[in-house]
């Protein structure tokens, strides 16, 4: 019985994207990992299939052919569709999954905080091809060389100058940072307001002073581009600021109000961790079913089978947490704790399963181009971005007692 997909729509999406992962992503995954290159052609194919980069703005119709019920009080399926899709795509390759969906990170704050004009402008900037003939992508630039988890320390500033804001600062570890056609950059507009002074701005590629920087070489998810971006007195019209201007003394507004956004994106990231773990587990299971060790079937060795049994339990538990967090969001219920639990636990499972798979396979998995070696490297980032493991535990601790542990 399929425990996770309670409707033909969700099952259909799982089957469609599972097939896409198996037949279109897997065959090119190792090549893009080794070359550290984005799968531009596949990204175009995915877009044609309805895997919109701006699904969060467009709704689900492009992918499923069926629009979400417009009644805001009715349960949605967007959260569950996203976790189901993410698990399947990351099962194919987490780096390619991020290349296909990285623009969604920038689309989320636009969907949540943008005016209709800003949403239209964001989509316009993503239409057509870029100067290299690639489909256009977007980037969300928040992290800085000295600021990741704690955004109150942002040093990028936006200073008002008449009808414009002047943005100055550097961003680091930005997905699509080198190639983006449009950036959502976060800057401090009102230092006295701390976190509540941070605002997002839409900045188009080619704006004078916007300088894409060095591309990073990474351990894993190497098909997804990560780069620095510099903002050297970039002049942006005031209409391109997301949300209303910060008010000195007010503790809300801007990025301080977007925590809810993370509650819907964390389950999606968690689902990618589940996809990586499942990839390694299924690889091992296939090997065990047909293999022998010391002249007896591998499946008769308890130390191997107990590892597989544990992996199956852990993956299932991580998936249930992830679906629970998405289900709550779809049903307009608070999911702060569930989203953090899903993210922290799925990251742990992805690392634990891939590490044990490496051990069970032995030296074979150390060969360059071995899929288990790739999944082992891909898993690590899931404990870092979208809130590190420690940050998730901090959120959970605060939920338990109302206090921030020091
Ligand atoms: C491949 C990749 C892609 C990325 N993509 C993007 C992107 O598109 N856009 C973007 O803006 N950013 C992106 N990031 C940045 C990512 O979000 C940050 O790396 C992450 O937030 C952690 O920040 P940091 O690296 O500065 O670590 P820090 O925040 O400096 O943390 C360092 C260590 O201290 C711990 N720590 C920090 N604060 C606390 C605390 N209060 N309590 C306990 N422990 C704590 C952390 O858990 C961590 O172990 C990406 C990063 C990578 C590696």
Brief sketch in words of this structure:
This protein is an alpha+beta fold and 406 residues long. The protein is 49% helix and 14% strand. It contains twelve helices and nine strands.
Strand percentage: 5-15%
* Count of domains: 3
Output the CATH class name of the largest domain.
Mainly Alpha
Q: Kindly name the structural category.
A: alpha+beta
Beta strand count: 9
Q: How many helices?
A: 12
What is the residue-averaged pLDDT? 92
Q: Shape, please?
A: globular
Named CATH architecture of the largest domain? Up-down Bundle
Order of helices and strands: HHHHHHHEEEEEEEHEEHHHH
**What ligands does this structure carry?**
flavin-adenine dinucleotide
Largest sheet: 4 strands, antiparallel
CATH superfamily of the largest domain: Butyryl-CoA Dehydrogenase, subunit A, domain 3
Poorly predicted runs: none
Query: What percentage of residues falls in helices of 4 or more residues?
Result: 40-55%
Distance between the termini: 45 Å
Question: How are the strands ordered across the major sheet?
Answer: 2-3-7-6
CATH topology assignment of the largest domain: Butyryl-CoA Dehydrogenase, subunit A, domain 3
Radius of gyration (CA) equals 21 Å
